[in-house]
């Protein structure tokens, strides 16, 4: 009989660790957490690292770096092995509680590459709001503002509920960016007077001062703040802890539930991670109906006796058992050793500082070194734009005046003679007018008089003068000669009109000239065989004819131009041109360097005629150090990453090194693969 106090104590289960991985716009951060005493606790947090927000390789490399950083903070020896992960995602990665297909592909590739097991995801602003409520004890009402390298993430939280999240493109005026984001909450009658700033690669204290200095309650801002907002900065690790604790609460709750009845759990497939299936291409499945509760009836224990089964006895002596045990042990060890030797793979990316190559030389197309052929093509195009000129237009006032002559001799006034009103307005005679001399003797002198038609010198209503206005004629004395209108002068009008300006004509001409050159390039290129090349810079327009629908200063709402020309260009042999460029460029390449990109070339025409053209050619390219990647792979095979990085840093022009090893192994086993063929070494430009 076994005494109760001699029973073997139950073995304490090993603690399980989880990753929290926060993926934001341009930044990645991670943490390691576990459920301790039925509560999730964050044990280690990594530093933030930048990624390019698009490329799968960048996501995998930077995520691996942050996960390794967090793990090393928890256990520098590398014995802790973590695979399960909860993702914290931006709001624009998720819709209707599902991850969008393009982002889902990224997460699937990340999980497969880093040997991660996704157990769930949370939206970062929602997790932050939940964590804020947990720390403060009341549902928060605030404006959460996340500052990322290229954008701002603005979330409105009212009584713990998310009213919405907007992304705003980041500019040099951060306060204006925040105003733009808040303006998008058009249906909110009152904004919270509390702003919480989180996560950034910039100095948030400086941002805080900018926001505090902004006139939020100014009438022209039209933002419904009841009070001037208070601005606070959340801790740098606030969001990653929020992600870990939000997801961890669900894990802790799941561990506390009794196991007497089977309950449905959110597996990786519920999150969109399905083995061997491209979930992004699948239609979303309808949610399964909730099962009706089934009453649990405990049946009475039946009395029965287990049948007796007689097995044949195998007689093994001690030596046979020992040999078999050794063979099994050797097989297991050999299998593990073979797996450790042959399965690991690594990607090593060497970012090197490139050298710029620039060279200029003169080239004659159509000469003896580079024969050329001239091609011609008729091209035409038309375009219409709104007229932008402005001009005062209208009619001139007209009427008639009576010219009075008090002189002893008659006087004749030619057409165009100027008459001046008391206010200085000028009128001209429409026709010749002859006035007889005065007759009789004083005091009964009779002045000579004649009626003549006049027209205002300018357009406008100012020239509509009332009857009885006196006019001075030219340089004559008003005592001897004068004029007066018996009836009002009328018909003068003026208005601001839209007309064709010189700039309108010049813009149309320039735009259509460029259009014709591009059109000529397309049409001439179709005539060129595959072994020949059209020199686009040689294209010129000959016999240009233009037809405007309105002249300059004519009144019009729109002005159009039709441009026609004969386009001419030179065609040369591709091989001949490349030979000349190679002969010029290759001597400029330093020893030990190779091209990173194709050589770019640009040409400027110095002079040209029908069959030849002289160009100033400029070529440019990036050069990288030439490296023997196969030898590098052999040199670092089986080495620890630290040693490998020291070795790689000794190579010329190395600026940055990224090493990614899969699968993830404990630190004391995490060497680069022993088989050099399993190491991929690539050289990229550090731009």
Topology readout:
Layout: E1 17-23, E2 27-36, E3 39-45, E4 49-50, H1 56-74, E5 84-89, E6 94-95, E7 98-99, H2 101-114, E8 117-123, H3 124-136, E9 142-147, E10 151-158, E11 161-169, H4 174-183, E12 194-198, H5 204-212, E13 230-233, H6 238-256, H7 318-342, E14 345-352, E15 355-365, E16 372-386, E17 389-393, E18 396-405, E19 411-413, E20 418-420, E21 426-429, E22 433-435, E23 448-459, E24 470-473, E25 481-484, E26 495-499, H8 502-525, E27 532-548, E28 558-573, H9 574-585, E29 593-595, E30 600-608, E31 613-625, H10 629-636, H11 641-649, E32 654-662, E33 679-685
Parallel strand pairs: 1-5, 5-8, 9-12, 12-13, 14-33
Antiparallel strand pairs: 1-2, 2-3, 2-4, 6-7, 9-10, 10-11, 14-32, 15-31, 16-28, 17-26, 18-23, 18-25, 19-22, 20-21, 20-24, 21-23, 24-25, 27-28, 29-31, 30-31
Q: Can you describe this structure?
A:
This protein is α+β, with helices and mostly antiparallel strands. Among the domains are: 18-126 and 241-254, 2-Layer Sandwich (Nucleotidyltransferase, domain 5), CATH 3.30.420.40; 140-235, Nucleotidyltransferase, domain 5; 372-388 and 499-575, 2-Layer Sandwich (Translation Initiation Factor IF3); 392-434 and 448-497. The chain contains 11 helices and 33 strands. The strands form 9 sheets. Strands 1, 2, 3, 4, 5 and 8 form a 6-stranded mixed β-sheet that branches. Residues 1-9, 257-270 and 274-316 have low confidence and may be disordered.
């Amino acid at each position: 009989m076994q005494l109760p106090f001699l029973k073997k104590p139950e073995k304490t289960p090993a603690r399980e660790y989880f990753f929290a991985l926060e993926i934001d716009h341009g930044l990645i951060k991670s943490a390691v957490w576990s459920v301790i005493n039925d509560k999730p606790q964050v044990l280690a947090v990594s530093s933030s690292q930048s990624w390019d927000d698009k490329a799968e390789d960048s996501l995998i490399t930077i995520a691996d770096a942050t996960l390794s950083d967090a793990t090393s903070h928890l256990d520098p020896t590398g014995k802790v092995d973590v695979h399960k992960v909860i993702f914290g995602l931006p709001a624009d990665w998720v819709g209707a509680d599902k991850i969008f297909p393009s982002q889902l592909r990224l997460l699937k590739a990340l999980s497969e590459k880093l040997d991660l097991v996704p157990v769930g995801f949370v939206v970062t602003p929602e997790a932050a709001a939940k964590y804020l409520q947990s720390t403060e004890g009341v549902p928060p009402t605030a404006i959460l503002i996340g500052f990322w390298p290229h954008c701002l993430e603005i979330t409105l939280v009212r009584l713990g509920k998310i009213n919405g999240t907007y992304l705003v493109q980041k500019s040099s005026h951060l306060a204006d960016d925040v105003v733009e984001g808040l303006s998008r909450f058009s249906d909110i009658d009152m904004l919270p007077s509390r702003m919480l700033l989180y996560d950034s690669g910039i100095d948030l204290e400086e941002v805080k001062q900018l926001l505090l200095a902004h006139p939020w309650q100014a009438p022209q801002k039209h933002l419904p703040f009841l009070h001037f907002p208070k601005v606070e900065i959340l801790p740098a690790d606030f969001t990653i802890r929020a992600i870990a604790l939000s997801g961890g609460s669900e894990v802790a709750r799941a561990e506390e539930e009794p196991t007497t009845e089977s309950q449905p759990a959110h597996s990786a497939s519920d999150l969109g991670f399905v083995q061997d299936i491209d979930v992004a291409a699948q239609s979303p499945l309808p949610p399964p109906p909730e099962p009706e509760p089934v009453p649990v009836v405990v049946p009475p224990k039946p009395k029965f006796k287990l049948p007796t089964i007689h097995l044949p006895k195998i007689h093994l002596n001690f030596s046979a058992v020992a040999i078999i045990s050794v063979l099994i042990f050797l097989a297991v060890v050999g299998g593990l050793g073979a797996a450790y030797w042959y399965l690991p793979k690594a990607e090593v990316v060497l970012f090197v500082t490139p050298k710029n190559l620039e060279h200029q030389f003169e080239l004659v197309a159509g000469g003896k070194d580079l024969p050329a052929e001239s091609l011609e093509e008729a091209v035409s195009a038309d375009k219409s734009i709104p007229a932008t000129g402005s001009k005062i237009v209208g009619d001139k006032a007209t009427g008639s005046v009576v010219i009075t002559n008090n002189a002893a001799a008659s006087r004749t006034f030619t057409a165009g003679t100027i008459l001046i009103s008391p206010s200085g307005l000028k009128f001209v005679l429409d026709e010749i007018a002859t006035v007889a001399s005065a007759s009789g003797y004083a005091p009964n002198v009779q002045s000579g008089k004649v009626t003549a038609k006049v027209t205002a010198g300018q357009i406008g209503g100012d020239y509509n003068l009332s009857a009885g206005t006196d006019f001075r004629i030219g340089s004559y004395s008003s005592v001897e000669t004068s004029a007066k209108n018996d009836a009002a002068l009328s018909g003068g009008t003026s208005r601001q009109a839209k007309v064709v300006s010189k700039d309108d004509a010049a813009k149309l001409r320039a735009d259509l000239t460029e259009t014709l050159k591009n059109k000529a390039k397309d049409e001439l290129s179709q005539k060129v065989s595959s072994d020949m090349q059209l020199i686009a810079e040689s294209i010129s327009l000959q016999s240009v004819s233009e037809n405007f629908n309105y002249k300059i200063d004519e009144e019009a709402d729109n002005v159009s131009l039709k441009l026609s020309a004969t386009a001419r260009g030179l065609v040369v042999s591709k091989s001949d041109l490349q030979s000349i460029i190679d002969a010029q460029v290759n001597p400029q390449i330093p020893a030990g360097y190779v091209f990173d990109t194709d050589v770019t070339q640009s040409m400027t025409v110095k002079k040209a005629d029908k069959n030849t053209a002289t160009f100033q050619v400029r070529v440019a390219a990036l050069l990288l150090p030439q490296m023997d990647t196969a030898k590098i792979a052999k040199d670092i095979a089986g080495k620890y990453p630290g040693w490998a990085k020291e070795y790689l840093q000794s190579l010329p022009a190395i600026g940055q090194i990224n090493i990614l090893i899969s699968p993830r192994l404990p630190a004391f086993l995490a060497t680069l693969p022993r088989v050099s063929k399993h190491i991929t070494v690539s050289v990229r430009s550090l731009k």
